[in-house]
Amino acid sequence: MKCEKINMVVNGQKAGEAALTVHLLDPVSVSPDKKRPMVIVVPGGGYERCSDRESEPVAMKFLAMGCHACILDYSVSPNRFPVALRELALAIATIRDHAQEWHVDVESVLVCGFSAGGHLACSMGAFWNRPVSYEGIGRSAEDVRPSGLILCYPVITSGEDCHPGSFEALLGEETWPEIRKAVSLEQHVTEQMPPVFLWHTVTDDTVPVENSLLLAFALQKNHVNFEMHLYPSGCHGLSLASEETAGDRKYYLEPGCQSWISLVKSWIENQRWKKR
Fold it and tell me: Are 224 and 149 in contact (CB under 8 A)?
């Protein structure tokens, strides 16, 4: 396996504080030219930090299922929107630039986001074809288009069921309602959104499950392909919901939620089959 860390650079200048850590599976002798999906893992942290519990352990799971994986450590507060969005856009474009060398299937560049990282991933899905995403990094819309989104207990709405801290960190404490509405993602779903895999717990009292429900309603209304799983119990920030990511904080151990990673494996395989 090859591991490489790349600083995100735009026009010779480092793009904010972002770095992309790329993990590549070695070619296998029976199929040396096989192209694999690439999953970009975008950890949560309320746009104030990047959670290590939602980064490398998750990337290792995607590697184990036969995908390449990378981790985006993106810029957080005091950086404001759209800095992190452009960093994710540049990460997607960078992967496509290296697709031949890295044996990546260019039609399977997926983004897996947790909590506020889920908001960032979903923002990319909603805004990939808008200038705010690609013009500032000198790329085209097609360069930065994600092939699919994996959203894990995502922050979505800036409305009644919002997670206030995420939007304050993303936009600043003093913002106009119109600006908050501009990043309330359930209001920006179109038929151009890529396919979505979505999961949440009903008992999440940090980012209410209504965030995912509002997104699901918008996806359905706009005829976007999506798969959704709701688990009856579990706190916010579960990551893999396993002993590995729980550590000594047993409230992060939720065996009933551990199935999401196997479900997403099937979803990735199904999405690739549909594109053949």
Answer: no
